[in-house]
Hints:
Elements: H1 2-19, E1 27-34, E2 42-47, E3 53-59, E4 61-62, H2 70-74, E5 84-91, E6 97-104, E7 108-109
Antiparallel strand pairs: 1-5, 2-3, 4-7, 5-6
Amino acid sequence: MRSVLIGVLFFIFTQAANGQLKNTEKAWSFSWGYNRAWFSNSNLHIKGGNKEDFTVYNVTAKDRPTKFTIKDYFGIQHIWIPQYNYRFGYRINKNWAISLGLDHMKYVMDNI
């Protein structure tokens, strides 16, 4: 529940800050957060160098979020462990912006 509240507050503050810009102003932006994912059933085609070539049908999978701890989510040594989203952007003008993002997600197959 706390993470939902933080997400809503971040969205509100981001929109308020963006609303302060004039249409012609250039601006930098940054966003950061953690994610959850849900996957539909998949068919996985696997082909290897030694003539391995097979398909696994109707695979189910889940994401695997890391249990929340301050150390794992905010410690610089562990920053790549949780599922996360980073975005850096630069607004060029009213209609154009450049954005660079990094999303780290986990696709963990269920046992067949």
